[in-house]
Amino acid sequence: MDSELSPSQVRPANGIHVGDLIDRRPVGRFHYLLLALAGAVMFLDGFDTQAISFVAPAIAREWGLPVASLGPIFSAAIVGLMVGYLVLSPLANRYGHRRTVIACTALFGILTLLCALTTGPMQLITLRFLTGAGLGAAIPSLVALTSEFAPARRRSSFVMFIYCWFALGFVAAGIVSGIVIPHWGWRAMFVIGGTVPLVLLILLLRYFPDSPRYLLTRGDSTRAHVTLRRIDPALPADAVIRADYSTVEEPDRGRVLMVVDLVRGRWFLSTLLLWTAFAANLAAFYAIQSWLPTIVGSLGAPSRVVIASTVLTTIGGILAAIIIGPAMDKINPFRTLGVVYLGGAAFVAALGWVIGGGSTWALLGAAFLAGTCVTGGQMSVIALATVLYPPGMRSTGVGWALGIGRLGGIAGPLIVGSALGAGLLPRDVFFAMAVILVVASVSVLMLERRSRAQRLA
Predict the structure, then answer these.
(1) Looking at the chain, which terminus has fewer C-beta neighbours within 10 angstroms, N or C?
(2) Half-sphere exposure of 282 (CA within 13 A, CB side)
(3) The pLDDT value given to residue 67
């Protein structure tokens, strides 16, 4: 049970540290509101990202485009996401997470509405790229801010909770498109995807908090105090609040954090190990998501089995987050994720074993179990990044890990396609994906040993 002790009742002579105040307070109304708002933005991000998959065929029919021309339309937002992750997310270190989330939500809302007015492919591709950049900049700030306000004992659970809403946005895009497009056309999907974020802005402007550590380092102790009183109403008006940064760990808040800060000194090996885990996990995730329907369908399975096997990988990951998040908080985040990846390797290998000769129920069961660890692992490794990096580095750390991970996500489906084209059996391809997950597990477990050694040093 969360402690009821207020830091205002234990006031050290040198002031109250933000981390102590947050960690000592129970989860309450402020946290639930933060999770609701952050989850809503993540949901809309997921909805917007996936909606193009359902909109593009209708666009191709209306504009008379060949199927091959849909590739750039699909890829534009993904490339934009990488730009947002790698280039724009570090700006939050200068302008604050609240401003970044609000500005990016307004940006992708307006740009999505403009997509409904497009009359040609180049206009749409440009707008989708810019929309993706806005989404890519918002997600690291959402993750960083949520983890900062989470008590340390709940941090992984908080981050995985909001990321589940990103996956649910994918599911909702499919459901809504099936209703909207046949009745009102593809432009209505962009109207919905753009209007709802702009309405959400009203709530974000009113209730979404900014990082108290950021406010303190910018000299705005008044706003930091007001924000912290939302967590602890008993906090005295004259309390001295300190940002509790370590100058060894934290870069200067007055400048934009660059990638060099993530790979210098003691962070070098830790960051490379984290990037390896991200890239390996996303390579397996996108390879399965991209090729599982094609492989299952080519083996003669009916369409309902093809759809069910793919959807179950996402559902499995969402349900697994309910277990993995608390386990990371209560046991050990690195060891928990390492075990998850090892389980994923076993389940993906099992999926490859049954995909060619097993029963339908065995196929669906293996797809679900593989999803619990592969999709669940994707959410978990994001939570792990918030545990690894201190608050001032989290936005850039998460952004660059997601960006580097996308490189694995791009390479995974391409490698699988080349392997299948070279005559490898689907079973062997899935066995290779299992090996990739073992690499992710080893990377995370090595990261745990390194982190433990640094704490003891």
Answers:
(1) N
(2) 20
(3) 63
Q: Provide the pLDDT for residue 41.
A: 95
What is the dihedral angle through the alpha carbons of 184, 185, 187, 190, rounded to the nearest 10 degrees?
70
Q: Please report which helix (H) or strand (E) contains residue 446, including its range.
A: helix 426-456
pLDDT of 257 reads 52
Give me the residue label for tokens 């790979």: 263
- What pTM did the predictor assign? 0.80
Instruction: State both tokens at 417.
Output: 């396609």
Alpha helices, DSSP H, located in 87-220: 92-95, 97-115, 121-149, 155-184, 186-207, 212-217
Query: How large is the C-alpha radius of gyration of the chain?
Result: 22
Contact assessment for residue 425 and residue 295, using Cβ atoms and an 8 Å cutoff: no
SS3 241: strand
Question: Which residue carries 């390492």 as its tokens?
Answer: 338
Q: Of 303, 436, 308, 300, which is closest to residue 363 (Cα–Cα)?
A: 308
Residues whose CB is less than 8 angstroms from the CB of residue 434 and which lie 6 or more positions away in sequence, other chains included:
344, 345, 346, 348, 349, 352
- d(C-alpha 204, C-alpha 206), whole Å: 5
Diameter of the chain by CA atoms? Answer: 72
| Residue 314 to residue 302: CA distance in whole angstroms | 20
Give the span between the Cα atoms of 173 and 116, in whole angstroms. 16
Among the listed residues 115, 170, 153, the one whose alpha carbon sits nearest the alpha carbon of residue 317: 170
Beta bridge partners of 101: none
- Stretches where the chain sits below pLDDT 50 are 1-13, 246-256
| Residue count of the chain | 457
